[in-house]
């Protein structure tokens, strides 16, 4: 139940940990700094995406190591993956990493998993990409049992440290109504991508039936949760925003046309539309979100800049504008900061 003082949704940001050039140490430091900034601004959740095959300018192969460091540098923001590529992980070993970061962070972990899509990644880990859905289902079942503190694989073996309650903290990324219903049947929260690949219709038109299928299939006593990822880049005006994102988004769309995700020959404006990009002055973004079909049923709005790679100062400024102008106009309120002990 909500009232006028209850936020409509939790606010998150997602980074794919990309930079420019080969200085990955700087790229990683900048991404860590974004977590600190987001923590100070009141963002509810910070998410990272896992990529084993390098992206242009980086990519993060080891998200739980990264999040352990972020846990030490922040005080309240929740820490999640969107997603961990589950079939390429040993689920028991993953549960140990998740439980460790959750313990170090004071119970702030959100675990998003999915099947991934890269044949090269599957080949590198000796897994059959044609079995990715089956492998995801099998691994998720074992991961759930490990995080529930059950014996796994052999008598008397349980994950340590003892995991907290992950009943409502496991998320699945899906790309169809059938996948959404399957996630609901297992009790997972739903993660929806920033763009619907392989479709001509606008992303929110494609994804709203997926969200509805998820809600229709939900049969648990707790509230279903839907995380909506969207490309959001506010600036002082549309021209400034485009200067930071236009070329990167266009080049990403052209690359993705190579694997059939987008049509060939897109121009920059088409690319921005295909990525369902919200960009420009905060007022323009708020107005555009007023027409977004999935946001009304979302419990989490997850903002991201990818596939654009804005310079660090511009990324920080964009986070500030999201937290102070865009999200509040959409009904979000930052959670109160905890009062220091002894204050």
From TrEMBL:
Q: Which InterPro entries does the entry mention?
A: Bact_Lucif_Oxidored, Luciferase-like_dom, Luciferase-like_sf
Q: Where is the Luciferase-like domain?
A: 14-286
Top-level taxonomic group? Bacteria
Alphabetical list of Gene3D superfamilies matching this protein:
Luciferase-like domain (3.20.20.30)
Q: PANTHER family, alphabetically?
A: BLL6902 PROTEIN (PTHR30137:SF15), LUCIFERASE-LIKE MONOOXYGENASE (PTHR30137)
Protein's name in the database: LLM class flavin-dependent oxidoreductase
């Amino acid at each position: 139940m909500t009232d006028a003082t209850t936020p409509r949704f939790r606010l998150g940001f997602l980074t794919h940990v990309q930079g420019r050039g080969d200085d990955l140490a700087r790229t990683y430091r900048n991404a860590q700094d974004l977590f600190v900034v987001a923590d100070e601004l009141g963002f509810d959740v910070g998410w990272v995406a896992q990529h084993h095959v390098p992206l242009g300018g980086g990519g993060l192969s080891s998200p739980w190591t990264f999040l352990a460091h972020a846990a030490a540098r922040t005080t309240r923001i929740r820490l999640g993956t969107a997603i961990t590529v589950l079939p390429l992980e040993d689920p028991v070993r993953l549960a140990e990493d998740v439980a460790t970061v959750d313990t170090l962070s004071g119970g702030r972990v959100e675990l998003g998993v999915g099947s991934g899509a890269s044949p090269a990644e599957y080949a590198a880990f000796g897994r059959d990409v044609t079995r990715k859905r089956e492998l995801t289902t099998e691994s998720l079942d074992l991961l759930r049992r490990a995080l529930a503190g059950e014996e796994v694989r052999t008598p008397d073996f349980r994950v340590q440290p003892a995991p907290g309650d992950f009943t409502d903290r496991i998320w699945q990324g899906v790309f169809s109504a059938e996948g959404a219903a399957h996630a609901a049947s297992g009790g997972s929260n739903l993660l929806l991508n920033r763009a619907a690949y392989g479709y001509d219709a606008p992303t929110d038109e494609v994804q709203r039936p997926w969200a509805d299928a998820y809600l229709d299939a939900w049969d648990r006593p707790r509230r279903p949760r839907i995380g909506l990822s969207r490309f959001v880049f506010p600036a002082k005006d549309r021209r400034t925003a485009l200067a930071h994102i236009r070329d990167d988004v266009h080049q990403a769309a052209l690359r993705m046309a190579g694997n059939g995700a987008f049509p060939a020959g897109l121009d920059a404006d088409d690319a921005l539309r295909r990525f369902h990009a919200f960009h420009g002055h905060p007022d323009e973004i708020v107005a555009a979100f007023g027409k977004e079909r999935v946001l009304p049923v979302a419990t989490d709005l997850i903002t991201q800049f990818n596939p654009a790679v804005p310079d660090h100062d511009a990324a920080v400024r964009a986070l500030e504008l999201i937290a102070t102008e865009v999200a509040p106009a959409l009904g979000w309120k930052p959670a109160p900061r905890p009062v220091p002990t002894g204050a």
